[in-house]
Each structure stands twice: as C-alpha cells, then as structure tokens.
Design a protein that fits this description.
five-stranded mixed sheet, Heat Shock Protein 90, mainly alpha, 28 helices, 5 strands, elongated
C-alpha cells in the first residue's frame, strides 16, 4: 500500500465563533430549560401544534444528545432541518445541516445521505444571507464527497472559497487546506502545494498554530510523493514534536503511519513495522474504526502476510472485519482492507478468493480516481492470475501495470520537477537539466502570453460591439417608453377635457332647461311632476360632478377630497375615517384634477371590489412632497395577477396618473388581508 494518508480535517474541532449566529430565541430557551430531561422536550415535540415551540424543543434535544446519543441526534437534526425550511428559516437549517454532516459521514458512515440533506438546503441558497452558512455548506459537502469522489470534493472546496466572505478567512484557509489534500490524493502535486501554501499563509496571519501544523503536514506529504524521503522524514519528525507540544495525539498517528509508508517505498520493512506499531499505539478510543485505524491494521496485516506470519495476519484481518460497516461505507477503508485481504489470501493459497478482493480493490481505486492504487491493483492481479495458472490474464494485467507505471512515473516526474523548482528556486541550481527546463517554460510562457493577449483583444472587441448594440437597444426602448408614456398622458388629458366639455354641456344646457321646466311646473302647481324634475336635476348634477369636479375650482383640492369622502360615507355602508391636511395651491389645476381622480378612483375600487367594512384616508403635507394613503380591511388581491389582467384598467390608470405627476405609487395587498395604496407626489 503506497498511498500517503492525509489528515482529514473536514470535521475536526469547530471554530470558536461557529455558534455565534444562532438566534437569541433558541439561546434563551435552552438556558431557561437546561435542567429539563430529554424526554420532556421529546414530549413537547410530539404534542405541541405550535411550530416555533416545536422547533425550540427539537433544538434542545439536539443539544443534549450531541456526541452522546448519535442516533437521536441525527433523527432530531433531520426533523429540525425540515421544520426550519417549512418556517423559511433557511440559515437555521443550514447550520444544522453543517453539524449533521460529521455524524452522518464519520459515525453512520453514510456520506451520501449527508450530501442529499445539504443539497436540499442549497436548493434555497438564494435565501441564505450569511456567507458563513453558504460557504460552510459547500465546505461540508466537500467533506462528504472526499470519501466518494475527489473531483467533486475539489469542486465543492472551490465553491466554498468563492462563497465565503471577508470575515470568514479562517474557513477559506480550511477550504484551501482540504482542496490541497484532495489534489494530493489525486497525485496533482503542483496545485496541491499551491493550496497548502495558501492555507499556511492565512493560518499564519491569524496565528492559528494548530492549523498551521496541518498545512505543514500537507507540504510534508508533497516531499514524500515527489521522492524527497529524507527531507520528508526530517520535517515529519519536527511536526510530530510540535503536535506533541500542542497535544494533538490523534494526528500523531497519521504522521507515523505516513512515515511507515515512506519506509515501505524505500524497502526498509523493519522501520515500516516499527512506525505502524507506534501509529497503532496512538489511536485514540474515538478513532476506533476510523479510516486511519483501518489503514494501520491493514498495513500490519499485509506486513505479517509478506513475512509469512500468517497467524498474526489472520488475527489482524479479523480485527479489521469487526468494522465491516465502516469498511463498506468508506471507499478508502475498503481500498486498504481489500488489498490486505487479497495479499493474505494469495500468499496462503486461496487464489480464487484473493482474486475477488483484488478485483474489488481495483474497482474502488478506479471509482475514487487514485492512480497509484489502480497501478498497484493490476500488479496484485497479475501475481494472483500467475498463481492460478492463468498466464494470459497475468500478462495482460502486468502490461497494464507497466503502462500505468510509466505514465505515472512521467506525470510524477514532471510534477516533481515543477514542485522541486518552486521549492528550491532560492538555491538556484544551475545544472543543464534545470536550465533547459527553464528555457522551455519561458518559451511556453511567452507563447501563452501572446495567446492570452489575442484572446483578450478578441473578447474586448466582442464586448465593445455588444455594448454598442446594447446601448442602441436601450436608447430605442427608452424612446419607445417615452412615446408610450406621452401618449398615455395625452390620452388622460384628452379624456379629462372631454369630460369637462360633457359636464359643462349637461350643466349649462340640459341643467338650465330642466330649471326652466321646473319653474313652469311651479306656476302650474303640478307638485308630482316638479318632484320628478328635481330628482332629474339632482341626477344630472351628480353626473356632471363625476365627469368634472367643479368643486375643485369652487372649494380647492383639500375640501374637494373631503367632500367626496363625506358623500361616500353618507351614501354607502362603508365607514370612512380621514386625516386630511391642507394641500391647496401646491399643484397646478391639471395636477389637482389628477390627484382628485386618483382618490376618487381608489375609493371607487374599494367600493366595487374590496367588500370592505371600513377605510382610512390620509393626506399629509411633507417638506417637499404630499403623501396620500388609502387603506381598507377588505378581501385584498394579488398585485402581480391584477396587473397582468388585461381587463384590470383601474390599477393601470392609477399608475399612469401617478407618472403624470412624477410621483410614486406603492401597493401592499394580500388576499383576505386588506389593501394599502400609497401615493407620493413631489411639489
């Protein structure tokens, strides 16, 4: 087993400010009921119909079962997330989904379930206001993907870096660190080194010495993967001493395991065994059954098998198989166990069974994209096929192994050279190989610079033409809009003039004739006919007033509005209250007519459509504007639906009149929840 094991920090210690975003309601609820038993809160969850109370009770169960009762913690965390989403508390759901990932991935060994839950929250990511939660969800999803698909994990860490804000620098450093680990596992040394370096610099600026050590561990892995074993050993010993000082025992086992793998690569089996034993002694109770623990046991089982100590090998494999569930749910654990089992079975003559485990190892390695493990799988298969007497399959596997070894060697050599040059460029080694490599890279850089310049010029030209077309299109749309608005305003003005003419004709023509007729009837003493004429005159006057409010000229805009309110209050069942301030002489006559019409049409809409019992009208004079608000307690409506309805001319007319006055119109309305119309007119 030649892969270097990286410390998994995706779900290690929570940051010091991880919980500062939790709501005060939850905080004080938890404090006040801290002494209550878990069953008390579970009873509330099962019996209450108040969703907020239920959410608070679920949170109390979660806090009391954290790291104590994993099954209950997971169950109630899932309930919390569903209810929080239902209450539109997406930030709260995001926080719980982040906390739940560790339990599902590392305790239940079910990272796919963690990914599904995080995806359900990310489906409403546009509602997440805090960059900490949005970036954190991607960071946690990357942690779950790490055991399944390294490419997906890298994409998640990249999204985390993009979505974290300036205040989240510590988590940005985490994302760089984890992305470096993923690149390292894939054998992409140069980007891995760049990410470790970026993480180290941020941790150093924040004086986070513990995580600086983790970033340093990633760099040491780079030394090992590039073949600088002595340098890796020296730096690893320094790091182990630092970890002992910091009390990071759980990470010391990882370093000792990695050192064992390095000794195996250079053929020092005694030193390999000694470091595996040291690593096993540093496995804490919390890490029993972890990927690291299974990796160490698998390394020991393989060592015992190769050195013909089959009894110990069998015993160690039996220890591994106690964690069968963990092995099946973690690709890396399955990979290491399959290799140890296949090696043991092959060396003890159980070749057919060995073939099944070796094939399983190959499939797992291909699934996670680990090139070195894929190569080793074919070598193991070649040996097993040879022992089975299937020399053709053995030869095919051996050829694939050699081809992948050459490819991996070439890739590793290229990455190693690039990494070596970056790491040691201050030493300025002037041998011929590095000189030629530098010249080639310089030439490629110049060509790349020229290509980028041409691409930039091309993109700039396309953007320029695009901006010109966009500008012309906007001018055209603006011109059409102005024409349309002008037409609408002319139409309103024309309509008002026509109303004024008809109103005047009714008042001066038909009205006068009816008065003459009334006087004649008085002289004849025909009382019944006189009353009918009186009613007709009053109806003509009402129609005339509706067509054109002559009271505007007679009384002024303020009293005209008050008169209209009084008329509606006296002649309808609608109760109207009002607060009208004097706005006379603030507007031109045409503007006053439009303001009056807005009030009139708004009240008319209330009477016709709202089914309201009461309405309140307010006219307030501010320093530079007049605010008119009309509120009712009617059935309300959906503004967007009403505006799209081609039969709904009332709202459109109100909007056009408001534009004529250079004002603003605001509508607040929901079905069964009343309506508020507010107009702001500058003067």
């Amino acid at each position: 087993m030649l892969r270097t094991f990286l410390v998994s920090l995706n779900d290690s210690k929570p940051r010091s400010n991880l919980y500062k975003y939790f709501s005060l309601i939850m905080f004080f609820f938890s404090l006040s009921l801290l002494a209550q038993d878990i069953s008390y809160y579970q009873k509330i969850v099962d019996t209450t119909n108040n969703k907020l109370t239920k959410l608070q009770a679920i949170d109390s169960v979660i806090s009391k079962t954290f790291r104590k009762d994993t099954e209950t913690f997971i169950d109630y965390s899932q309930q919390f997330i569903s209810l929080a989403k239902e209450l539109d508390s997406i930030d709260a759901a995001a926080k719980k989904a982040m906390n739940l990932q560790d339990a599902l991935t590392h305790y239940k060994h079910n990272p796919r379930s963690a990914i599904t839950i995080i995806n359900s929250v990310l489906a409403e990511k546009y509602k997440i206001k805090d960059s900490f939660f949005l970036g954190g969800l991607y960071l946690k999803r990357g942690g779950a993907h790490y055991d399944l698909d390294l490419k997906e994990a890298i994409e998640d860490y990249t999204l985390a870096i993009k979505n974290f804000g300036k205040k989240d620098s510590i988590y940005v450093a985490d994302a760089y660190l984890f992305r470096g680990q993923a690149y390292s596992s894939m054998g992409k040394f140069v980007p891995a080194g760049e990410n470790f370096d970026a993480a180290y610099k941020i941790f150093e600026a924040l004086k986070d010495y513990e995580y600086m050590a983790h970033a340093q561990q990633g760099t040491i892995t780079m030394f090992s993967m590039n073949g600088f074993f002595e340098k890796a050993k020296t730096e690893r010993e320094k790091l182990i001493a630092k970890m002992e000082t910091l009390g990071l025992k759980e990470y010391i086992a990882t370093e000792q395991y990695n050192q064992a793998l390095d000794f195996k690569k250079i053929g020092n089996s005694d030193a390999q065994y000694a470091n595996l034993e040291k690593a096993l002694s540093n496995i804490t109770p919390e890490n029993q059954g972890s990927t690291m623990h299974i990796g160490i046991l698998s390394g020991l089982a393989e060592y015992y098998s190769i050195h013909t100590n089959y009894e110990k090998a069998a015993k160690t494999i039996a220890e591994i198989e106690v964690f069968k569930k963990e092995i099946n749910n973690n690709s890396y654990s399955k990979l290491m166990y399959s290799e140890a089992k296949a090696t043991y079975l092959n060396l003890t003559g159980q070749h057919n069974l060995a073939l099944a485990f070796a094939t399983n190892k190959l499939e797992t390695a291909e699934k996670i994209g680990h090139g070195e493990e894929i190569m080793d799988s074919y070598l193991l298969l070649s040996n097993i096929y040879e022992n089975l007497g299937d020399y053709k399959s053995s030869l095919i596997s051996k050829k694939i192994y050699m081809r992948k070894k050459d490819s991996l060697f070439n890739t590793s050599s290229a990455n190693s050279l690039a990494y070596y040059q970056t790491l040691y460029e201050t030493e300025k080694k002037e041998n011929e190989l590095i000189s030629k490599s530098a010249n080639i890279q310089l030439l490629e850089k110049d060509n790349d610079g020229f290509r980028k310049l041409m691409i930039f010029i091309g993109v700039a030209l396309i953007l320029t033409f695009g901006l010109i077309l966009l500008y012309r299109n906007q001018l055209h749309l603006k011109k059409n809009k102005l024409i349309q608005e002008g037409f609408s305003q002319e139409l309103l003005a024309s309509q008002e003039n026509e109303r004024r003419r008809i109103s005047k004709d009714l008042h001066d023509g038909l009205g006068q004739q009816l008065l003459v007729l009334k006087n004649k009837l008085i002289t004849t003493g025909n009382t019944e006919a006189k009353e009918m004429v009186d009613a007709t005159i009053e109806e003509v006057r009402t129609i005339s007033r509706d067509l054109h409010p002559f009271q505007l000229q007679e009384l002024g805009i303020t009293k005209a509005i008050m008169h209209t309110i009084t008329q509606i209050d006296e002649n309808t069942s609608l109760f109207i209250s009002s607060e009208i301030e004097n706005i006379d002489h603030l507007f031109t006559p045409d503007q006053e007519v439009n303001i009056y019409r807005i009030v009139q049409e708004s009240l008319s809409n209330t009477l016709k459509h709202a089914n309201a019992e009461a309405s309140k009208i307010s006219v307030k004079k501010m320093a530079d504007q007049v605010i008119v608000s009309i509120r009712d307690n009617g059935q309300g409506f959906e503004f967007s639906e009403k505006l799209k309805n081609i039969k709904s001319l009332g709202l459109k007319t109100l909007m056009e009149r408001t534009k004529f006055l250079n004002g603003q119109m605001k509508v607040q309305s929901k079905k069964h929840d009343g309506t508020l119309l507010e107009f702001q007119f500058p003067y």
